[in-house]
Amino acid sequence: MKSGDRVALASVAQQNEVNAQRTGMKKSFGALLIFAGAILLLNIPVARAQQSSEAPPSGNAQNGKKLFNTVGCYECHGRQGQGATQTGAARIGPPQLSFEGFQSYVRKPTNQMPPYTSKAISDGDLADIYAYLKSIPMPPKGKDIPLLNK
Amino acid sequence: MAKSAKGAVGRRNFLKGAAAGAAALAAGTAAAATAAGAAQPVELKRVVPPAMSPAAEAEVPTGAEVLTADRTGSDFMVDVIKSLGFEYVCANPGSSFRGIHESIINYGGNKSPEFITCCHEESSIAMAHGYYKVEGKPLAVLAHGTVGVQHAAMAIYNAYCDRVPVYLILGNIIDETKRMPGVEWFHSVQDAAAMVRDFTKWDDLPISLEHFAESAVRAYRIAMTPPTMPVVLVADGDLQETPISSDSKIRIPKLTNEMPPVGDSGSVAEAARLLVAAENPVIIADRTARTPAGLTCLVDLAEALQCAVVDQTGRMNFPTRHPLNQSDRARVAIAEADVILGLDVADLYGITHTYRDQIERTSRAGTQPTAKVITISSDDLFIKANYQDFQRYNEADIAMAADSQATLPSLTEAVKRLTTDDRKRAFQDRGVRLKAAHMQALEGSRNAAAFAWDASPISTARMCMELWDQIQNEDWSLVGATTFVSKWPQRLWNFDKHYQYIGGAGGYGIGYNAPAATGAALANRKYGRLTVNIQCDGDLMFAPGVLWTAAHHKIPILHVMHNNRAYHQEVMQVQIMADRHSRGISNCGTGTTITGPDISYAKLAESMGMYGEGPISDPKDLGPALKRAIEVVKRGEPALVDVVTQPR
């Protein structure tokens, strides 16, 4: 795993572990934790990555959007990959990991996310999903949206 | 079913007597005719009824059945109910309590209590559940002792888990000789409270009116003593309907509510010592603020210590924009804590541990190994074994079996006594750091809300903030649970009053929210508050008749549908299983989604006599729609806006 992904995973893990438990949801209620590994398992370098920079493999964003909304990503991550504290799912639209990190985590998640083996979703489909997520633009900051400052 | 009055003859005897009289009349006439038949016509004897005096007419004729009674046992039962101060009684009507029902609406004038018509007993109980969390006192509920309490059971369990006192009166006919054939046998049971005894605090079956009076008062006191929980009183049908004298002098005992249990002075002193000496104390509050005073008391303690507060929102415990509120970074705050104070926390283990739901389930502590844990909880005074709502055992260094709200003043006083100038300076520094962390978390939540801001289906963040925009300048009260909208209101709105949030179901039994919100709105009505409920679609579909109840009784409430067209939690649960088996999740909508066809909640509301608008799936349309609906609610009527939303 690339060092940049370790950064991203750690910071996302920290933020989303905070968010995921904020609701006080019982484990038996199926709160799914984040799309990132446990902090303790990773080295934590300095900077925080907001958006992955490595060039991903080519993928079909249109097909990716269709897959994202049918193979089980949107239920926890939201239809635009915005994440949700109630599910513990990280914001992945746009993604915070390289494709390699994304693919690695989908196959072998280290927290609450259920695993997606290649039987459930192929590498090609993952590339398409990743392309869809990369196509989602970063929104303005919260301070620039009037309704969020009331 | 009523007994005949003393001296009266039963119906069978009356008819026998009447037949005998007619026969005698006929016989006399025939005998006379026979005697005279051979010779000459017989003069028929004329039977003259006896003259009746007014006094004689006022008496009950010997042998006649009594069909009316000026006063029956149910009238006295309503006297007892009134003495306990119930504002309302919620019920779906039932013959087993027809006596009490009629006595409420006629003898009692349908006032204090007023009869609230519900379409399902689950709604009756849940309305009482929501009402209590706003008003601080219980509602009464009436139900059949068999089919009614069966319907009500889940809602009773929710109230039990949520530590809410619901006062349930069940109708039943214990004497089999008094039951009509058929329905009354199906609706009778030896022990009506048995099926809910595991999740109620106390129950009784009074066999006399004096017994009823004492048990009714006792039940109220038990229900209202922390830990507050549901109670059951069985009102026998025969006892309800037996006539009693108009001047009967059965006494109703005086109600004296018990003072809640307070933590012992030694434990309080030791807890204060630990908290004052701590570098990073954290207070975790859940069902702490039973009343508005609880919120004030918690602010006092937190400010005395300048310590982090994590609000688990079982009640409205701590202002959301208070700089010491660290709920949005709860896990980090708890991980850094050297002393943790839990105040009536439903699941302290859950908030202090991380649990991994994979094939092998594992957990790890989320606290410092040396962190000291102090708990104050009335739950420790009353734990039953069968239902496992008491959660996993969490170790503590000091455990006070007491009501946390009642204990807070003495704890705060002890903290202030021990705080030296040096500690005060350290506290101030800590307060500055916590304020910065709070502001950073708030900014983080605002940034997180910006994602999918203009999306369709509408993001839960956008929905909540459009709603906030419409209500923030009103005297508002948010009465639906916010768990399923990722707690955006707590993260972004400004809550500072006790009635602005009332927590969730307690037992996570779905179907709680709509009726509980309606019950809370009923309590808010007299204060002129704007009651708002974010309503999950699946929850509403359990008993949507509560929409009619709100329309019929003119209970102003705004339902904003969180319409993600699914029992979404179960979508994810089944998905976990499918992924675990590597079977793909394309079938996980089977048995979990509410589509094909999509339900029109606006039309559902209109069918129940309620204003309805939607479905709205463009976020730009949401603000104006909410504004229109709020105008309806401000006129004193309920309204519903159907919003098509993202899952969470």
What do these coordinates show?
The complex is a heterodimer of chains A (about 150) and B (about 650). With about 150 residues, chain A is an all-alpha fold. Helix content of chain A is about 35%, strand content about 0%. Chain A has a single domain, classed as Orthogonal Bundle (Cytochrome Bc1 Complex, Chain D, domain 2). Chain A is built from five helices and no strands. In chain A, helix 2 packs across helix 5 (about 125-135). The longest helix of chain A has 20 residues, at about 5-20. Mean pLDDT of chain A is about 75; it is low at about 10-50. Chain B is of the alpha/beta class and about 650 residues long. Chain B folds into four domains: about 10-60, no CATH class; about 75-240, Thiamin diphosphate (ThDP)-binding fold, Pyr/PP domains (Rossmann fold, 3-Layer(aba) Sandwich), CATH 3.40.50; about 265-435, 3-Layer(aba) Sandwich (Rossmann fold); about 450-645, 3-Layer(aba) Sandwich (Rossmann fold). Helices cover about 40% and strands about 15% of the residues of chain B. Chain B has 23 helices and 18 strands. In chain B, helix 3 (about 75-85) packs parallel to helix 8. Chain B starts with 10 loop residues before the first helix and ends with a strand. Residues about 1-40 of chain B have low confidence and may be disordered.
